[in-house]
Every structure is written in C-alpha cells, then in structure tokens.
From TrEMBL:
This is 3-dehydroshikimate dehydratase. Residues 292-411 form the VOC domain. The lineage of its organism: Bacteria, Pseudomonadati, Pseudomonadota, Alphaproteobacteria, Acetobacterales. Belongs to the bacterial two-domain DSD family. It comes from Muricoccus roseus. Keywords: Dioxygenase, Lyase, Metal-binding, Oxidoreductase, Pyruvate.
C-alpha cells in the first residue's frame, strides 16, 4: 500500500475555457498533473512546445496525451495509416513533453473482432513508441465495438506483451457497466497499469455513451463506488497518478477555477475515505460529529428586521436577547435560535446588499470546532472570522459554496455560552405548549450547475451523505432534489435545483439573485396543537388532497379531519413511520418555514407532498405584515 497519496491529475476536458485557462485553473487548484485532451490542443492557437513551457512554468506535469482513437484491429489500408498517425502523434507528445498516450478501444464498425490482431497492432505501436522513449496505454471504452471491459483490454495487453504497453483503467467505464475490479490484484501486476482515470456519475438508465459524455462527475458527487474501485487499483500495486476525467455539460459551462477546486477537493476526500490501517496516509482530520443547528442568521435591514420579527412572532418565537454592541437580535423558541442581523459593516450587511433579506449564516454544533475548521481548510475551503466587539467570543466559520457562512459551534456549556458572552439575554417567558424543539432541516434552492459542488462540499467537509436524486413536480416545471444528512440525522439539508424560472425554486433564486436557504423546517412533538395554537399564516391545502390521503392510507376519520383542519400534509414510510407537516406563507416570496412532526423514526421529507405544496405556493401570495 502507498505511503503517501498518489499524485493528483485532471483532464483538460473537465474544465471550461482555452487550453491556457485550463492549465492555469488546474495548477491554481493544486493539481500536480493534467491530461491533455487532444481537442484542446488542436483548437489551441500555438505550438505544443508553448504548452509544455506553460505547464512547466505553472509547476504542473503533463501526465498523458489522449485519446488516440480507433487504432487496433483495423483492416488494411487503415492499419498502415494508423501506424503513420501514431508516429505523428508521437511527434506531438515529444513536443508536449509527455511520454504516455491513451489509446481507447476501437468503436468503428469496420474494426475486426480479433484479439490477436489487436494485440499485434498495439505491440507494433508500443515498439514504435519505445524507440522514442514513449509508452502506450490501452483503455476499454464501455461502448467499444469489440472491447468494452477492462478484462478484455488486459487480455490484449497481456498478449501484446511489450514493456512499453500497459492497461488504462477508467472507473466510469467499469462501474457504468455494473462491473468491478474484482480480481485485478493477482491478475494485473501494478506496473502494467499505465494510468488510472476517475469519474463518478449519477445512476441513470441510458446508453453508456450518452451517460459518459454528459453526466460524469467527480468522486463523491455521484452514486458509483469510487472508493471500492480505487482501493482495488491500490491493492494491485498501482502507484501512478489518479486522474479525473469528467465529461459534464454543467462543468464545461462553469468557471474553470471553481470546477478545478471541486475536482481537487474530491480527490482529497477520496484519499481520506481510502485511508485506513493498510493505507497509512490520512491527510484529513476526521469529519465533525454534528449535533444539530445551533442557530440560523438572517441578514436584514431595520425595516425587514421588524417585518421578520412580526412573522416569527406569529409562529410563537420571542425576542430572547439583544447583542451587546451590534444591531443583532436573538429570537428563540424551544431549541431553535434565530439571529436577525442588521449591523452595518458586517458579513450580514454585505449579504443583505447582494441578496436582500435572507439567511446569511448557519451555525452547526460540532464536537470540535478547531478540528472541523482544519478539515475544511484542508479541503480547500476558505474560512472567515467576523470583526469582534469587546469581550465577544470568536466563532470560526467556513464559507459555503453559495457565499453564506457556516459557523462551527462546540456543543455543551461552551457552545451555549456564545449567547451569554455576546448578548443581553431577556428573561425567558413561559413557553407556549407544543413549542418547537429544534431545526429539523434547512432546504436550499440552487441555481443550475450548483448541485454537484454543494453535494461534494457538504459530504467532504461535514460528512453529510446524499440520498439518490429525485424529481419533484412544480406546476411551472420540475424541481430536482437531493437530500443530505449526517449519519445520526441531526443535520438535514435538502438541495433543490430547477431549470424552470417560475417554479418555487426558480422564483427563489431570481428573487435572491443566487442560491440560498429556501425554507427552514422546525420540529414539534404535536403539530396539530402547534398549528391550532398559533396565528401563523399557513399555506392552505385543497380538499382533493385529503380525499386522496384517505384513499392511499386508510386513515381514521378523526385523524383525517385533524389533518384537514390544520392544513397538514401527511406521509408514511414502509416501516410505519409517519410525517406530518405544514408550511407558512412565504416571506416576500423569498423563504418560508415548515413545521414537522416525525413519528416512529420517519427519516424522509414528505417528497410525495412536494407537488401539492408547490402548487399551493404558486396560488398563494406572500405574507404581509398587518401594519
Ligand atoms: O468519450 C470518449 O470518447 C472518451 C475518450 C477517452 C477516454 O479516456 C474516455 O474515457 C472516453
Ligand atoms: Mg477514460
């Protein structure tokens, strides 16, 4: 097993922009190497020697030149022409200063189903390469005409039996076909593995070519077993680069530096997942143990702060504290703390300028804030410290991909004391019955192309695990949703994205000019009493919904009547766990609140009701203050 993480590399095809842009972004993100994708070189206006010099100046190696297509097992005269073509590409490689070329398995209908011929052709190519000090790697494309599995590619490489020829493994081609690397160690010597490419992907049922060319993503962003794949590669003794090769429509359209940083983050995360007794390199402090949301902070101005306080009061929140030196209020109910920040010249004020009234920070209770911050920084996140007033406690924070802050608060007495040290706490009024217990989940609306980056950020930094993606029907378009939660279910975070501009998600991101917290759900032990005992402006649910509930679940009349009276939505899981929830109207069509009651270990979010909720929201107007 390796003593240190393997070198990290990224293919230029992952990134947007010109070839120099791509090299700069890869170097900036901290990669040691790049794969030069041929298309990027031939659209570049300048000699390969210039790219070689640029890479050298940036301190980044060119790990491989790729792909060389449709080479092996062709009839004459293509066979001869392919040898000439190879020589031309060897010239380019020497100018680039890379010694390895990727040959992907032939997709041509005219290719022959002849392993011996394929082996002979690759042997001749390797012989020609070796004469120039170069090497050839052979990769099975999952849609190759006759060779689409790594075992077939290995069979050919083994038969060719040339020291300058090796096998290239690509996680996507292997895992997309439902294959694994079982048996690799023992079958393929580590030094015969010339190169390893990594890509994850969502589970989709479509042809592998389209899937591969449009939906690959970085390790940890998809649903394939990248850790298992990479473990097998290491067990076989491979010690070359781990290289990201991702074809993704959204990545191609996103800023190269952001995608390159996400890519490097994914490999650092993968190293940490692989680290164990047999792989000693453990470069990351462990993920924090999360104990829920300590507070959510809203950026407001004075007027919006008044409106939001009124809105919160209808839900039973009370002002519980005034900051000692800043225009910041604490509103509280049960275990839920909401901070309203109207302080000029603060991170919140900057957020308010850009986005208007909205959540600008989330505070997570962690077991060890220093360790959590160190992990985030090792995962290339930027940290933040707010300007402190006299005697205030510093709270470390990490910047999330939407620009909001995530504060790291240690739980227990110390964690609580952030309130005592920074606030004049008001005497607590007796809590109304059925008060809120805690923040149940915080749902985010994202703009197109942000989902994969958010999933990777929360998975790697905080150890939240993503559920499979699902589609939610809004009357104005589909909303794609992926929920994330920590193993204990203390921090839950559904992420939503929508191409429709008039969906609930689409309206939010246009009102907000970007991604942000779309709704906050609070838990209560008794939602029917909660709703009956509050003046909160709730979303009304049509009778047809309750008709259908009766049909689907066979609820007692009394239970059904109670749901209907409170405009409560209902769901039940396969284990009999139940979920009752209700929504407030929105605050300025920006964000809204949800109240939930979980019974019997229900761990989901009532996705079956999302369509009814979004249709009701499309009909309803935002709440307006009585004043
Ligand atoms: O989509 C392709 O053509 C292609 C090319 C080279 C690769 O390494 C690969 O995995 C896919
Ligand atoms: Mg590949």
């Amino acid at each position: 097993m390796p003593e240190a993480p393997l070198p990290k590399s990224i293919a230029t095809v992952c990134l947007s922009g010109s070839l120099p842009d791509k090299l700069e972004a890869a170097a900036n993100a901290g990669f040691q190497g790049v794969e030069i994708f041929e298309q990027d070189l031939l659209t570049h206006d300048g000699p390969p020697e210039g790219i070689r010099a640029m890479a050298a100046d940036l301190g980044i190696g060119i790990t491989i030149f790729q792909p060389f297509r449709d080479f092996e097992a062709m009839p004459e005269p293509q066979r001869r022409r392919n040898m000439d073509r190879a020589e031309r590409k060897f010239d380019v490689m020497q100018a680039l200063g890379t010694d390895l070329v990727l040959v992907c398995s032939n997709v041509q209908p005219s290719a022959m189903d002849d392993t011996a011929r394929a082996a002979a052709d690759l042997r001749e190519m390797a012989e020609r390469a070796a004469a120039r000090g170069l090497r050839v790697g052979y990769e099975a494309l999952s849609w190759g005409r006759h060779v689409n599995r790594w075992r077939q590619a290995w069979d050919i490489v083994r038969q060719a039996d040339h020291p300058a020829l090796g096998l290239i493994l690509d996680s996507f081609h292997t895992l997309a076909l439902g294959d694994t690397l079982d048996g690799l160690a023992g079958m393929v010597p580590g030094e015969k593995i010339a190169f390893v490419q990594l890509a994850d992907g969502p589970r989709l049922s479509m042809d592998v070519l389209s899937w591969s060319r449009h939906y690959r993503n970085f390790p940890g962003q998809g649903e394939l077993d990248l850790a298992g794949f990479t473990r097998e590669v290491l067990a076989a003794g491979y010690r070359g680069p781990l290289s990201l090769e991702v074809f993704n429509d959204e990545f191609r359209a996103a800023p190269a530096r952001r995608i390159a940083r996400d890519g490097h983050r994914s490999l650092i995360w993968l190293d940490s997942v692989l680290a164990g007794p047999s792989i000693p390199a453990a470069p990351l402090p462990p993920a924090p143990v999360l104990d829920g949301v300590e507070f959510l902070e809203f950026a407001v101005d004075e007027a919006r702060g008044r409106d939001l306080s009124d809105f919160l009061a209808t839900l039973g929140f009370r002002k519980a504290g005034q900051h000692r030196s800043k225009a910041v209020e604490l509103w509280r109910q049960g275990g839920v703390n909401l901070v309203l920040n109207a302080e000029p010249d603060s991170a919140a004020a900057g957020h308010f300028e850009l986005h208007g009234a909205s959540v600008c920070a989330t505070a997570l209770r962690v077991d060890d804030a220093t360790r959590a911050l160190a992990r985030a920084e090792a995962l290339l996140c930027s940290s933040w410290r707010e300007r402190l007033g006299e005697g205030e406690r510093p709270i470390p924070a990490v910047r999330a991909p939407d620009g909001t802050l995530i504060y790291l608060v240690e739980r227990g007495d110390q964690g609580r004391s952030i309130w005592e040290s920074d606030f004049h706490l008001l005497p607590g009024a007796a809590e109304a019955p059925a008060a809120l217990e805690r923040v149940d989940h915080v749902a985010h609306a994202l703009t197109g192309g942000q989902m994969d980056g958010f999933v990777l950020f929360h998975r790697s930094v905080f150890g939240l695990e993503p559920n499979p993606p699902m589609d939610l029907p809004d009357p104005q378009g589909l909303v794609r949703s992926r929920a994330m939660a920590d193993p204990a279910g203390r921090v839950r975070m559904p992420l939503n994205v929508s191409e429709g501009r008039q969906t609930a998600t689409g309206r939010f991101v246009s009102a907000m000019a970007g991604a942000g917290v779309h709704h906050i759900a609070f838990s209560t032990p008794d939602i029917a009493s909660f709703v009956a005992g509050r003046a909160a402006p709730m979303l009304t649910i049509p009778d047809n919904y309750y008709e259908d509930l009766a049909a689907r679940f066979g609820l007692e009349d009394a239970a059904l009547a109670e749901l209907e009276r409170g405009h409560l939505l209902y769901d039940r899981d396969s284990g009999g766990g139940e979920f009752l929830h209700a929504f407030t109207l929105s605050f300025e069509d920006r964000f809204f609140f949800e109240v939930v009651e979980r019974r019997g270990g229900y761990a989901e979010y009532g996705a079956a009701n999302a369509g009814v909720r979004m249709a009701a929201q499309a009909r309803s107007r935002p709440w307006s203050p009585a004043r």
